[in-house]
Amino acid sequence: MTDKKTHIIDHAIELFAEKGFEGSSIRDLAARADVNVAMINYYFGSKEKLFESMVADRASYTRGVLDEIANNSALSDIGKIERIIDTYISKLFTNRKFHRVLHQEMMLSQRETLQHSIVEILYPNSLIIKNVIEAGVKKGSFRKVDASMVIATIIGTINQVLLSKKMCNKLLNKEDSYIPYDDAKFAKRLSDHLKQLMQAHLLPQS
Amino acid sequence: MTDKKTHIIDHAIELFAEKGFEGSSIRDLAARADVNVAMINYYFGSKEKLFESMVADRASYTRGVLDEIANNSALSDIGKIERIIDTYISKLFTNRKFHRVLHQEMMLSQRETLQHSIVEILYPNSLIIKNVIEAGVKKGSFRKVDASMVIATIIGTINQVLLSKKMCNKLLNKEDSYIPYDDAKFAKRLSDHLKQLMQAHLLPQS
DNA sequence: AAAAACTAATTAAACGTTTGTTTAATATTA
DNA sequence: TAATATTAAACAAACGTTTAATTAGTTTTT
């Protein structure tokens, strides 16, 4: 991928994250990326194909690390879950804008083909976590829980605090200008909560 | 509010839920609601004002019930949480399309005034739950937990399974055509998970 | 090494649609 | 008759996309 294409994609992620795909115009994007309008269609073919290129370009951004954790035999089952939580939080904090775009587009039921490719990216991650949980349940190191729902809880909690900024700032008594992504303390707080939650939910009572 | 206005709002919620606000056109809406394009601007003034009217019209759709639960002295603290969970699930299942529109628009950082009014609707609900949790912590019937994060977990989990249909169907091994809203068993499963989760997390270990 | 030929990158302008909105005329109701 | 509701048509602006001309960069030929 050429420098210019990546440059356009960078700005596209930012714009789409702010205004959504439908809300963003090629001319907006061209102005931001400081390129001619025609360049976008010249490089990507169309607005929709630009989106697909964007997704393809930034696709595999978590899988590998999760796989490593899941297969690390030095870790206990609950240890794996805790590592996964930290990995997920750190990755989503870093790629927050791209994650926002993915999440938004996944929620709109239109554009079937695109939704499919988004799910292709995110689903394998969920599956890794699901397997860890179900293995733990089988072994007896975890209680009998609804693994799919546990994943929804982990990912849903992170999404909730990361994606609805205004709502969360109100809940956390922060000013409107507060941006959680910049605050390491906030990441720690989120991580601590999820770990505590998972320990209580997953571990058998002694 | 006249019959015709409500009729238009009904279809607007449906359309916005499917295509998003930016992705929906006045002409689309007019065709769906079977009214002349000009009627929408005649009644609401503009597309944006239509959205505001929609929000205003469907605003108070949960508050009252939550308040009752929070003040019901016959219920234990964990009993209150369980009731709140069921109420929330049932309300979101019923008003699912409106909820989807609200959530989508809340995530976009644009349209500041509109975001503000959305938060005005949803925040009080969160506050009621937060108060119940913090009261429980003070009394000692709950462990010392991060109340704000607990709310993010409850609402985030529900949103996760309700709003990203395709992803969740995959996780739950359902076909693409499966619609969780129509399935009472699914609501039960979600409710059971959240209750079990909250009991483990909130109740002191015996 | 210089000139020519060719490919790729870049541009401003225009294309045909679609957008939200307004108008001005007509129908309906009170 | 007067106010309200409804319509088809037109409006200007914005949209994604295409065109056709120009510049820059590379390769080939002399």
Descriptive key words:
globular; 11 helices; homodimer; DNA-binding
Overview of this structure, please?
The structure is a homodimer of 206-residue chains. Chain A has 206 residues and is an all-alpha fold. Chain A contains eleven helices and no strands. Chain A is globular. The first copy, chain A, starts with a helix and ends with a helix. Chains A and B meet through α1, α7, α8, α9 and α10 of A and α1, α7, α8, α9 and α10 of B.
Strand-pairing-aware structural class of chain A:
mainly alpha
**Main beta-sheet strand count, sense and barrel state of chain A:** none
Strand proportion of chain A, as a percent range, falls in under 5%
The tally of strands of chain A reads: 0
Average pLDDT metric of chain A: 91
Radius of gyration of chain A, in angstroms, nearest whole number: 19 Å
Low-confidence parts of chain A? none
* C-alpha end-to-end distance of chain A: 55 Å
The gist of it:
By secondary structure, chain A is mainly alpha-helical. Helices cover 77% and strands 0% of the residues of chain A. Chain A binds a DNA duplex (30 and 30 nucleotides) through residues 4, 25-27, 35-42, 46-47.
Furnish the topology, listing elements before pairings:
The structure is a homodimer of 206-residue chains.
Chain A: H1 3-23, H2 26-33, H3 37-44, H4 47-57, H5 63-71, H6 77-94, H7 96-107, H8 112-139, H9 147-163, H10 165-171, H11 184-202
Chain A binds a DNA duplex (30 and 30 nucleotides) through α3.
